[in-house]
Amino acid sequence: MSSSSSSSSSLPLQTLKIGIVGFGTFGQFLAKTMMKQGHTTRATSRTDYSQLCHQLDVAFFRDVIPFLEADNDVILICTSILSLSEVLNSMPLRRLKRHTLFVDVLSVKEHPRNVLLQVLPENMDVLCTHPMFGPESGKNGWKDLPLVYEKVRVRNETRMVEMSCEEHDKVAARSQFLSHSIGRILAEMEIESTSMNTKSFETLVKLKESATNDSFDLFSGLFIHNRFAQQELMNLEQSFEKVKQRLLKKMSEQQSLSSV
Ligand code: NAP
């Protein structure tokens, strides 16, 4: 996360105390980059990441109460889409001692907005974001990579690309969910690189690899908690059927021509 003063070299960098909820693949990736940016990070998660956090110089809290009381400027929600509700509802959020900005990074947007507004005390700010990058594409930092966000309830302004949660989910169902689905289909087909790859086929192999590098929880969350995803799955199925029918029709035309 860039601080409010951004990464522009002419501006001083404001360092923040950032608490991370959910220290899986994406949470760890964010923590490593934010540490490099000079922010202080602390984390809590279902799994005990004490050892890893020790190596990374991130404070790890097994107990969520001291985590909430640890004077966080920002709390980043990095849990899976499927577990968000359970995780937030299990946190004693009334124990928060100070005004905090809650930022979620889930790859669907209406769902976390609704849950955050439901569980958070009124004096907590809410920023719903979707970083359009991951540990691989963001491994050299995320400057210049897109991040979609909606300031759901934010008193302090920051500089980013704004989009409503609804619009985000509509667009993401047609882009991100679609590419994950096709990647998963290609994985089911067990496609592998060959000795005579075309550029297009290499793109397909990369798509398969990138889709299967993400957890199935992430993929199913994109489907279950994005109300526009089901329609896209149906569109995919119908389009597949149309292409197949066109091929079969052409084949039967050719066969009848050659039999004349
Ligand atoms: P993920 O499988 O979507 O989420 C893994 C995280 O969820 C871990 O921190 C895990 O905790 C936690 N979790 C899962 N089930 C849980 C449960 N029942 N109770 C408590 N915690 C639970 O994989 P991810 O790649 O790390 O993604 C995290 C979030 O970032 C997701 O919401 C995803 O949509 C978003 N995101 C990911 C990417 C990406 O490229 N990976 C990009 C943008 C946004 P433990 O590790 O403690 O088990």
Percent range for β-strand residues? 5-15%
How are the strands of the largest sheet arranged?
3-2-1-4-5-6-7-8
Distance between the termini: 68 Å
Low-confidence stretches: 1-12
* Average residue pLDDT: 91
- Ligands bound, unique: NADP nicotinamide-adenine-dinucleotide phosphate
In CATH, the architecture of the largest domain is 3-Layer(aba) Sandwich
The CATH superfamily of the largest domain turns out to be NAD(P)-binding Rossmann-like Domain
Q: What characterizes the major β-sheet? A: 8 strands, mixed
Order of helices and strands: EHEHEHEHEHEEEHHHHH
Kindly identify the CATH topology of the largest domain. Answer: Rossmann fold
How many separate domains? 2
Residues in helices, as a percent range: 40-55%
Cα-atom radius of gyration: 22 Å
Description:
By secondary structure, the chain is α/β, with parallel strands linked by helices. It folds into 2 domains: 137 residues, 3-Layer(aba) Sandwich (Rossmann fold), CATH 3.40.50; 83 residues, no CATH class. It contains 10 helices and 8 strands. Strands 3-2-1-4-5-6-7-8 form an 8-stranded mixed beta sheet, with helices on both faces. Helix 7 packs across helix 8. The longest helix is centred in the C-terminal third of the chain and has 30 residues. The chain starts with 16 loop residues before the first strand and ends with a helix. The protein binds NADP nicotinamide-adenine-dinucleotide phosphate. The site of NADP nicotinamide-adenine-dinucleotide phosphate has 26 residues, from helix 1, helix 4 and helix 9.
